[in-house]
Amino acid sequence: MIPGGMDPKKVEQMLKQLGMEMEDIKAKEVIIKAEGGDIIIENPQVVKTTMRGQVIYQVSGDVKQENFPEEDIKLVMDQTGIKDEEKIKQALKEAKGDVVEAIMKLKK
């Protein structure tokens, strides 16, 4: 996250002068509990930044979608006649969010 050509030690010194501290956090997985469902981030890179007493976590990595738009769930329900929302979500999960693939899987 340091711009190319800049010495990481100098950047760290400049940030400390500004009252900022950055720390890499070793994590295997990050789970965000959202209203629409969990968002799981695999192989995350987590940086904790402290500035003026405020702590900020920056997370990047491979997002594994666990929540699906209500429109997608409703469309799969309408097309398959299946009203079991958990079954629909499981099919969408297995289809990696691909609505058409989920419908085809459930119609088999």
Describe this structure in words.
By secondary structure, this protein is of the alpha+beta class. It has two domains: 8-65, Ubiquitin Ligase Nedd4, Chain: W (Single Sheet); 70-107. Helix content is 37%, strand content 36%. The chain is built from four helices and four strands, in the order H-E-E-E-E-H-H-H. The chain has helices spanning 8-17, 70-80, 85-94, 99-107, and strands at 20-25, 29-34, 37-51, 54-65. Strands 1, 2, 3 and 4 form a four-stranded antiparallel sheet that branches. The longest helix is centred in the C-terminal third of the chain and has 11 residues, at 70-80. The termini are far apart. The model has no long low-confidence stretch (mean pLDDT 87).
Briefly characterize the structure.
The chain is α+β, with helices and mostly antiparallel strands. The chain is built from four helices and four strands. Strands 1, 2, 3 and 4 form a four-stranded antiparallel sheet that branches.
Global outline: elongated
CATH first level of the largest domain: Mainly Beta
Briefly note the CATH topology name of the largest domain. Answer: Ubiquitin Ligase Nedd4, Chain: W
**Strand residue content:** 35-45%
Count of extended strands: 4
Strand count, sense and barrel status of the largest sheet are:
4 strands, antiparallel
Instruction: Give the oligomeric state.
Output: single chain
Low-pLDDT runs: none
The secondary structure category is: alpha+beta
Helix fraction, binned, reads: 25-40%
- Integer tally of domains: 2
Mean pLDDT: 87
What letter string, H or E per element, gives the SSE order? HEEEEHHH
Radius of gyration from the CA trace?
21 Å
CATH architecture of the largest domain: Single Sheet
Number of helices: 4
Termini distance?
47 Å
